[in-house]
Design brief:
heterodimer, A: 11 helices, about 75% helix, about 0% strand, elongated, B: Rossmann fold, six-stranded mixed β-sheet, four-stranded antiparallel β-sheet
Chain lengths: ~270, ~325
């Protein structure tokens, strides 16, 4: 047996970034492998759900509703349905992966390592973003079976989907940090996330709502995300696109800082 | 150079439990050190603080001179921890667990693969490299955690009861492995309930109880503080009553067995002479308990290894 104990010095400053990059990559690759390994749980169900939405709301009910904002109902809801999948899957990936690591205690593998907490948060969040984007691609391909999607503003499409995936991955991280059991893992998605998503203009334009309901809808951050994304496809939005992107960036920065602070404090993990 | 230094380290949990009450501890580089204490004494809390799994309430901790408050990443890079409880992903393959852990320490895949092979072979787990970790036996899981802690080749290895629930053969092979590792330069801190293990492996010792260090020093020196030892003597013939051995405390446990308490100033020759004089033939003799166990029980609980109160504890 040969050991080289004592010969491995702590990482010098010059190699610190390289070490961090390797560590970050390891988390991301592990998360990606997990998504692919359990594809039956991660990629297939959103595809089936989206197919049903397109079939029922788009093909069966949609023609009876007629045009919305100058577009067929199917074209109108397609961006919303894609965004809904991105939101639920990026959130769900981080909450289940991080809570699973906490529950199985293998989060300790990361906590004892020299990786800084901000990089641990970023690794998990990028994992969530990857799943959100993968599922978004799956749902987009399904949407193309039902309708034609024209992209008006590529920047808005890519920017909105990435920012949304990041924001909800961070939201999933917060949920996982505070969750003490599996009930608390599903509480936020069921009682907060799903209602906000459905009321966030996925299936309708908020301009159709009574004044008070439209004003109330503007307190819903998902409204801004769905509309920024829809603007990218249709060039039409219920809210100011600039405000929408400002809301998303602000939410991303605030949530990231909050997640790192939680991990630094050891909330829900240490003690 | 100290591999580990603790200064007035304290921890009070939110529940109000005062797990550590300002402990001071120095472990020299290259040492094989035993940290002993009963359940709930604060050993795992101290290890948890050093490995940043527990947030300290007060005090300082240094790993090879690196302050965990200001140089946490550098301190962590020097440290490998084998926890008491299984804490790897039980759905991952053995080799994946080690490769990931190497990655968390910034070790590139090519080097990591070589190390995985080396440590798995060293710990007799190479055949299990593609097995899902939950299918391993208890002893294999323990060895996997040791391999994982060594994958970044730390200068300080802390093992929290590494041989708990492991059969004797594997325990002995793990002892040999740890001895070799220490001989090659790795500082090792060991907590264990097997006091024979600590006495056999470690050069220095600290005993912690109720959050305080109540004894520390060289193993041999600490053991010398034992004032008395109890010897169990088996006789060929059945004894008729308790034989009188002047100056010795004697107890007959059955007609063929007696226990004699021998102080540091006394010797065994006088016992044999006295027994021979009375026509009692000695068949065998042994220590009633491991010496460290005896010391541990006296310090921690104020009683003998078999639970009987010591003279000091009884107020004598």
């Amino acid at each position: 047996m040969t050991t080289e104990a004592g010969t491995v010095a702590p990482p010098a400053r010059a190699h610190e970034n390289e070490h961090r990059w390797v560590g970050f990559n390891t988390i991301v690759i592990r998360e990606f492998s997990r998504i692919i390994r359990i594809w039956g749980q991660t990629l297939v169900p959103p595809g089936i759900t989206a197919t049903l939405y397109f079939l029922i709301f788009g093909s069966l009910i949609g023609p009876r509703i007629g045009d919305m904002g100058g577009y067929s109902y199917m074209q109108y809801i397609a961006p919303g349905l894609i965004m809904m999948s991105v939101i639920t899957n990026s959130y769900g990936n981080v909450v289940s992966s991080f809570f699973g690591a906490k529950f199985g205690r293998h989060i300790e593998e990361l906590l004892v390592s020299p990786l800084p907490n901000w990089l641990i948060v970023l690794g998990y969040v990028v994992g969530g973003v990857m799943r959100g984007i993968l599922v978004g691609i799956v749902v987009t391909l399904i949407a193309l079976l039902f309708t034609r999607l024209h992209v008006e503003h590529w920047f808005a499409v890519i920017g909105a989907v990435l920012l949304t995936a990041f924001v909800f991955s961070l939201g999933g991280f917060v949920n996982a940090v505070f969750a003490r059991n599996f009930d608390q893992v599903s509480f936020i998605p069921t009682f907060i996330l799903t209602p906000l998503t459905y009321l966030g203009g996925v299936f309708y334009s908020v301009s159709m709502l009574p004044d008070w309901a439209e004003r109330l809808s503007h307190a819903n951050p998902i409204l801004y995300m769905v509309n920024a994304f829809r603007f990218g496809f249709l060039g039409h939005s219920d809210v100011s696109v600039a405000v929408a992107f400002t809301v998303m960036v602000a939410a991303l920065v605030a949530l990231f800082a909050f997640c790192v602070w939680l991990l630094d404090r050891g909330t829900g993990i240490r003690d | 150079m100290h591999a580990l230094s603790l200064r007035q380290l304290s921890k009070t949990y939110k529940t109000g439990v005062h797990a550590l009450k300002g402990i001071d501890l120095d472990v020299d580089a290259g040492d094989f050190f035993a940290l002993l204490g009963p359940n709930g004494a604060g050993k795992t809390t101290a290890i948890g603080i050093v490995s940043s799994l527990v947030t300290k309430s007060a005090g300082k901790a240094y790993v090879f001179g690196r302050d965990i408050d200001t140089e946490l990443e550098a301190a962590k890079a020097c440290l490998g921890v084998v926890p008491q409880e299984i804490n790897f992903n039980q759905f991952e393959k053995v080799s994946t667990i080690l490769l990931n852990q190497a990655g968390f320490y910034g070790i590139r895949r090519g080097i990591a693969r070589e190390r995985v092979e080396r440590w798995l072979k060293n710990l007799s787990l190479w055949d299990k490299r593609d097995a899902v970790s939950r299918t391993l036996s208890g002893g294999m899981k323990r060895r996997l955690m040791i391999a994982r802690a060594l994958i970044h080749e730390p200068r300080l290895l802390i093992l929290d009861e590494p041989t708990a629930g492991v059969d004797i053969e594997i325990r002995r092979s793990m002892w040999e492995f740890l001895r070799r590792l220490n001989a090659e330069g790795t500082t090792i801190i060991l907590t264990t309930h097997y006091l024979e293990e600590a006495e056999s492996l470690c050069r220095n010792i600290a005993i912690i109880d109720e959050g305080r260090i109540i004894e520390q020093g060289r193993m041999a020196t600490v053991l010398r503080t034992l004032q008395t030892e109890i010897f169990v003597i088996n006789t060929r013939e059945a004894m008729d009553g308790t034989p009188q051995l002047p100056g010795y405390s004697v107890r007959v446990t059955d007609e063929h067995t007696l226990e004699v308490e021998v102080s540091k100033e006394q010797n065994l020759n006088d016992i044999f002479a006295a027994l021979t004089y009375r026509g009692i033939e000695v068949l065998s003799m042994r220590n009633k308990s491991n010496r460290l166990e005896e010391l541990f029980m006296r310090l921690v609980e104020g009683r003998d290894a078999d639970g009987t109160p010591t003279r000091a504890a009884a107020g004598e």
